């Protein structure tokens, strides 16, 4: 499974620890923060396919959205990479054998 927590450097303590995905098929998380929004993406193998899952936090990781699938592949795939492009938009970079290279935009509702 995958866990997330906020580490306070001054106090050397971790707060707001929660289970992102307790399933043993969840792996390779990526976290990026930009414009006060934290994005968390990971791979999860379920139902004979690899899903890219996403959670978003608008309060520095204290509360998170429910996980959603943003892409699915039934073939071999690499690990996701969260990036911010030159226009400050978040994307997930992902390559799969079946679909090839994908640059998946992340849309956050207000």
Report what the structure shows.
A hairpin with a 2-residue loop joins strand 4 and strand 5. The mean pLDDT is 91. The protein is mainly beta and 110 residues long. The strands form three sheets. It has a four-stranded antiparallel sheet with strand order 3-4-5-6, with no helix packed on it.
- The SSE string, one letter per element, is EEEEEEEEE
User: Which range does the strand content fall in?
Assistant: over 45%
Main sheet properties: 4 strands, antiparallel
Number of helices: 0
Structural classification: mainly beta
The gross shape turns out to be globular
The main sheet orders its strands as 3-4-5-6
The beta-strand count equals: 9
Terminus-to-terminus distance: 29 Å
C-alpha-based Rg, rounded: 14 Å
Task: Flag low-confidence runs.
Answer: none
Mean pLDDT: 91
| Share of helix, binned | under 10%
Features:
single chain; 110 residues; mainly beta; three-stranded antiparallel β-sheet; 9 strands
Question: How are the SSEs ordered, and which strands pair?
Answer:
Blueprint: E1 2-8, E2 13-21, E3 26-34, E4 37-46, E5 49-57, E6 68-73, E7 81-84, E8 90-96, E9 100-105
Short summary of the structure?
With 110 residues, the chain is mainly beta. It has strands at residues 2-8, 13-21, 26-34, 37-46, 49-57, 68-73, 81-84, 90-96, 100-105.
């Amino acid at each position: 499974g995958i866990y997330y927590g906020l580490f306070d450097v001054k106090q050397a303590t971790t707060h707001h620890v929660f289970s992102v995905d307790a399933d043993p098929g969840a792996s390779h998380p990526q976290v990026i923060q930009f414009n006060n929004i934290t994005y968390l993406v990971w791979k999860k193998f379920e139902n004979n396919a690899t899903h890219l899952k996403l959670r978003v936090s608008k309060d520095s990781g204290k509360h998170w959205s429910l996980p959603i699938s943003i892409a699915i592949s039934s073939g071999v795939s690499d690990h996701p990479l969260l990036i911010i492009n030159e226009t400050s938009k978040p994307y997930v970079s992902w390559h799969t054998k079946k679909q090839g290279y994908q640059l998946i935009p992340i849309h956050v509702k207000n």
